[in-house]
């Protein structure tokens, strides 16, 4: 038995009307910008939300396109929860294809901007 207490990595879940969109451990942290990111594992509901997140990739720096994306994303009424099912507040939430994925691989990244202590106090693998 280890002399150090183990810290279980926390998985966060994105849902839409009770349907799981996907999960992530949010292993990357940028405290200065209040952004967390991680590998995103899609759930059954991701196919319904994916067209909205594709709007974000297409918007780039176009203010009108970003506004359409945010309006469409808000209409999804996404909820982020920790492993215990406790809601986590966020300002921004984006899911996009992983640009660093191997050719032909389908991998996603989630980025969340939040001040919620449930994210910032959660243990990570790093």
Please give the structural blueprint.
Elements: E1 12-16, E2 19-24, E3 28-30, E4 35-42, H1 46-59, H2 63-76, E5 78-81, E6 87-88, E7 92-97, E8 108-113, H3 117-120
Antiparallel strand pairs: 1-2, 1-5, 2-4, 3-4, 4-8, 5-6, 7-8
Helix pairs in contact: 1-2
Features:
disordered N terminus, alpha+beta, 126 residues
Overview of the structural elements:
This protein is α+β, with helices and mostly antiparallel strands. The chain has a domain at 44-126. The chain contains three helices and eight strands, in the order ββββααββββα. Strands 1, 2, 3, 4, 5, 6, 7 and 8 form an eight-stranded antiparallel beta sheet that branches. A hairpin with a 4-residue loop joins β3 (28-30) and β4 (35-42). The radius of gyration is 15 Å and the shape is globular. It starts with 11 loop residues before the first strand and ends in a 6-residue tail after the last helix. The model is unreliable at 1-6 (pLDDT under 50).
Amount of helix: 25-40%
| Average pLDDT metric | 88
How would you sum up the global shape? globular
Instruction: Please count the beta strands (DSSP E, at least 2 residues each).
Output: 8
Low-pLDDT residue intervals, each spanning 5 or more residues: 1-6
User: What class do helices, strands and sheet pairing give?
Assistant: alpha+beta
Quote the beta fraction.
Answer: 25-35%
Number of DSSP helical runs: 3
| Cα radius of gyration in angstroms | 15 Å
Q: What is the distance, rounded to the nearest whole angstrom, between the alpha carbons of the first and last residues?
A: 22 Å
User: Which H/E pattern describes the elements?
Assistant: EEEEHHEEEEH
Summarize the biggest pleated sheet.
8 strands, antiparallel
């Amino acid at each position: 038995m280890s002399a150090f207490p183990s810290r279980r990595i926390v998985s966060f879940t994105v849902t839409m009307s009770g349907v799981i969109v996907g999960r992530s451990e949010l292993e990357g942290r940028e405290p200065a910008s209040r952004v967390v990111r991680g590998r995103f594992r899609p759930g059954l509901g991701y196919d319904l939300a994916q067209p909205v997140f594709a709007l974000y990739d297409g918007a780039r720096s176009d203010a009108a396109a970003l506004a359409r994306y945010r309006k469409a994303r808000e209409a999804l009424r996404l909820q982020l929860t920790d492993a215990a099912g406790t809601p986590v507040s966020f300002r921004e939430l984006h899911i996009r294809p992983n640009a660093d994925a191997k050719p032909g691989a389908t991998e996603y990244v989630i980025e969340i901007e939040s001040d919620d202590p449930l994210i910032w106090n959660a243990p990570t693998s790093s």
